[in-house]
Amino acid sequence: MELAGILSDRRIETYKLFFAPYETIFIDEAQYIPDGGLCLKMLVDLFPDKHFLITGSSSFHIAQSASYPLTGRSVTRILYPLALVELRETLEPFEIYSQIESYLIYGMYPEILTQNGVQGKIEYLINLRNSYLLKDIFSLEQVRNSQKLQDILRLLALQIGNQVSLHEIANHVGISKNTVERYLDLFEKAFIIKKVPAFSRNLRNEVSKSAKYYFWDTGVRNAVINNFNRLELRNDVGALWENFVVMELIKKSEYTEQYAQFYFWRTYDRKELDLVVEYGGKLTAYEIKWGKQTVKSPLLWQETYGGTVEVITRERLLEVL
Questions:
Q1: Are residues 65 and 119 in the same domain?
Q2: Domain count across the chain
Q3: Which residue has the higher pLDDT, 46 or 63?
Q4: Which of the two ends of the chain, N or C, has the fewest CB atoms closer than 10 A to its terminal CB?
């Protein structure tokens, strides 16, 4: 009898038969268990002294149905691709810097970091793109038009670091703006992309109703556009670097339990900052540059919010992280 069938039976006698002998119970891919939250509540109520470890590859049913009945009795952890704050525990700085190009091109999934050859990394990412990336969206959310999803994802991949216009995407793909919004929400729940909204304190000329979208992993992003060229052959290095740095800062915030808020800042007359981090009532602004160019802090930002703007280049990466 399969685990999903055992759990879906939802009878005390069945649960006692299969689960009573174990102190720790591990359930993987819990998003595929019908009424998973109710099943888990029954288990926890029946075995209050046991430990339950519930995992899944997306937040659709884990967050929406599994956690809700266990409010106050469960802890949620999100496992992201590897972070530099983790690698620093085992690697020397020069080892990390020597791999920056690989991180930008092939990403930070554990399987990528353990692959020795370039071809193996590419094959892994292509297989991930073709077989697993949208699996939960198709199976759990009953989205049938796979080509539309792939078209939107490709458009997002080509616009990292830029404001995304939902109207433009809708017109380009040939669907409604509301459907685009729904698909973007699904991409976020599948941990493919991360939305970063605009920062505004309601100044007249601040952009407030807009967002950027970054990929949780740059290797996945490059697989979506099928571009694994070396950095010297690319015209998107600045965007890749920005995506990488933003996501590393977000991962650091999560793993150090700071839970900061992340924004970008822009005005209608094109003054802008790549990233604004709000934590503990303090604002920290960043410009993220692949090269060593000089960056001037926008006067409006200084006058309105104070403080200077930190510049994150390759040389300063580990200082910030």
A1: no
A2: 2
A3: 46
A4: N
What's residue 61's pLDDT? 54
Residues 6+ apart with CB under 8 A from 225: 154, 157, 158
Q: Which amino acid is at 74?
A: S
Closest by CA to 209, choosing from 164, 244, 151, is 164
CA distances from 113 to 96, 108, 132, 219, 252 (A): 12, 7, 19, 11, 19
* Inter-residue contact 24 to 50 (CB < 8 Å): yes
Q: Do 165 and 277 sit in the same domain of this protein?
A: yes
**Is 77 within a domain?**
no
The answer for 52, left when phi > 0, alpha when psi is -120 to 50, beta otherwise, is beta
Q: Which of 45, 70, 95 is the last residue of a domain?
A: 70
Q: Rounded to the nearest 10 degrees, how much is the dihedral formed by the CA atoms of 242, 248, 251, 257?
A: -110
β-bridge mates for residue 282, sequence order: 279
CA–CA dist 222, 215 (Å, integer): 10
- List the beta strands (DSSP E) in 115-159: none
Place of tokens 């370039």: 118
Same domain, 99 and 178: yes
Q: Beta-strand (E) ranges in the chain? A: 24-27, 51-54, 193-197, 211-215, 261-266, 272-279, 282-288, 309-312
Work out the number of other CB atoms within 10 angstroms of the CB of residue 71.
Answer: 7
Q: Got the DSSP string for 257-306?
A: T---EEEEEEBTTS-EEEEEEEETTEEEEEEE-SS----PPPHHHHHHH-
Question: Are residues 33 and 93 located together in one domain of the fold?
Answer: no
- Helix then strand then coil, in percent of the chain rounded to 5, is 50, 15, 40
Contact at 8 Å (CB) between 308 and 295? Answer: no
pLDDT tens track for 239-290: 999 999 999 999 999 888 888 999 999 988 888 999 999 998 899 999 999 9
